[in-house]
Write a structure and sequence with these properties.
mainly beta; 18-stranded antiparallel β-barrel; 8 helices; 26 strands; 12% helix; globular
């Protein structure tokens, strides 16, 4: 046993205790801290993730949140079931090493139109997360893992259509499956009370809900530099990124983007955020523009700069809000605006009142916006750790796209905001309950969208230029080939180690996808083991 213990120490490195200084991008991890992080008595700005753990740890009781319990007996039991001894740990620095493991067996019963068949297989993810910290202000972290195996039928259809394993990178066919390699690394520096800097190759997620229209962790990793400034109740984030468009049978093309987010805790129960972003191509057929230094100015709005430069860059403006009337009730949302005219909005409203008036030119194609409304409830009915999320998302056609494909809000064949893209309406309901180390989660996603065709852009695919649209007026959300998807997932887990998100799990997914041309139904059972922190989304089309 003495020879095994050191390997257990390495195997189950926790992430909260004296290790990485940034919160992981993992919704299972956030489910532990959500109630306390959004408590109306706290002053945390949690919209721009990942954020530094320094403020979080000062504000919450980590052991109580993560469900860490006393384990009697040997030290190895404490390490295995709670949190971990580091490879090296003193008052100044620490070195940590953790595995990233996900292995699952699935059985998928499929009904495609009038045919039925079954698919079985194993999907494996194996990698390593390692890093070094100095005090509580410097952290170098590297995560690398490889995914390989078979996928359920509906997931394989997504992989084939996009050419990527969602969130993991370019899909390379293997014997009977696919493989891909994922990299996430960063250098984090906290400079006093007011500033922190992150230079990384990874992902970001800006929002308070399950989805977001600002920037999500849906797509593959990318180079970025982030500056975070905290002044009292105000948090200001600058993000400078480089994205890539994959061009079939050609060299991939680089584009750049900058994002700003100003978050203000106006009161203990109210947070308002202002958001802006711009994407531009690095090079066209005659001009190598590179990174435009005009967008390095951290205090400007992009529309005035665009006009002063005579630029046709793709910029978006928006806001988000978080309203917490009670510590266990949290209302949130986003409003994202692209191009629009007030007269066109008035015409749309008039059409709603007088739908039979043919003289109204409603549905102008460039009325582009997205809306999110959400609610989170914690410890419902007095039952600790019974939580619920209800969310509505809607995106008008053509938002996030552009007349130039290289300036769309996308990266490696995936949208960088909502995974559906645009031209859709979506409702999400999630219920979770945790009792000691048993975790039960239910999720229902319902999406209605309009698909594009090879010749006409109806507004869903952010990579398809909107110059291919069918008409200037009479556009509406879900236009095109209207398609519906229902995705229900139920999962039960036994949490081996809450700090490492090590869990045994079993689940079932019921999925239906249909339009008047095609129908697909899946019943997908899965059992497996997961260790590590990462999100992967298959609940879209």
């Amino acid at each position: 046993m003495k020879k095994i213990i050191p390997y257990l120490f390495i195997f189950f490195s926790g992430v909260l205790y004296s290790q990485s200084l940034l919160t992981p991008l993992d919704k299972q991890w956030y489910s532990f801290i959500d109630a306390e992080a959004n408590n109306h008595k706290l002053k945390l700005n949690t919209t721009c993730k990942p954020f530094g753990k320094y403020e979080l740890i000062k504000s919450v009781n980590a052991d109580s949140i993560f469900g860490v319990t006393n384990v009697s007996g040997k030290r190895w039991k404490e390490v295995l079931f709670n949190h971990t001894s580091l490879l090296n740990n003193d008052s100044v620095s620490s070195i940590y090493l953790s595995p990233i493991i996900s292995t699952s067996y699935f059985s998928d019963g499929v009904r495609e139109d009038d045919s039925t068949f079954s698919v079985t297989g194993i999907t494996n993810t194996l990698g390593l997360d390692a890093g070094i910290t100095y005090r509580n202000w410097a952290n170098l972290n590297v995560s690398l893992f490889h995914v390989n195996g078979q996928f359920p039928y509906y997931q394989e259809r997504l992989i084939k259509s996009q050419g990527v394993i969602p969130g993991m990178g370019i899909a390379h066919p293997t014997n009977g499956g696919y493989e891909s390699t994922f990299v996430n690394s960063y250098l984090y520096l906290r400079a006093g009370k007011h500033f922190d800097f992150t230079l990384g190759y990874g992902k970001n997620f800006w929002g308070d809900g399950y989805r977001t229209f600002m920037i999500s962790d849906n797509a593959f990793s990318y180079p970025y530099f982030k500056i975070n400034t905290k002044l009292g109740r105000i948090n200001y984030t600058n993000l400078f990124t480089q994205f890539t468009n994959l061009i079939p049978n050609s060299k991939s093309k680089i584009k750049y983007a900058t994002f700003h987010h100003l978050s203000w805790n106006i009161a203990k129960w109210l947070n308002i955020g202002i958001y802006e972003a711009v994407v531009w191509q690095a090079k066209d057929s005659i001009y190598n523009r590179g990174f435009d230094v005009n967008y390095l100015n951290p205090f400007i709005f992009y529309r005035p700069i665009e006009y002063s430069l005579g630029s046709s860059d793709n910029s978006i403006f928006g806001m988000n809000y978080k309203f917490t009337p009670h510590k266990y009730h949290h209302i949130y949302g986003q409003i994202i605006l692209d191009d629009f005219l007030l007269s066109a909005i008035k015409a749309d409203l008039k059409h709603q009142v007088f739908p039979k008036d043919s003289s109204i030119n409603w549905g102008w194609w460039a009325t582009k916006y997205a809306l999110q409304f959400g609610y989170k409830g914690y410890n419902l009915f007095g039952l600790k750790n019974l939580n619920v999320l209800a969310e509505y998302n809607m995106a008008r056609p053509y938002i996030f796209s552009h007349s130039i494909t290289q300036q769309s809000f996308g990266h490696i064949n995936q949208p960088i905001a909502h995974p559906v893209g645009a031209n859709f309406k979506e409702t999400i309901l999630m219920i979770s309950y945790r009792y000691k180390r048993i975790d039960i989660a239910l999720k229902l996603v319902n999406v209605r969208s309009g698909l594009d065709t090879s010749k006409t852009a109806f507004g869903k695919n952010v990579f398809q230029p909107y110059v291919d649209r069918g008409t200037g007026y009479f556009n509406y959300t879900t236009q095109g080939l209207e398609t519906k998807m229902q995705d229900f997932n139920a999962q039960i887990s036994y949490i081996i180690n809450p700090s490492a998100n090590a869990r045994l799990f079993a689940g079932v997914t019921l999925r239906r996808y249909e339009n008047y041309k095609y129908r697909l139904e899946d019943t997908y059972f899965q059992v497996g083991l997961k260790v590590g922190f990462f999100n992967q989304y298959f609940d879209y089309f």
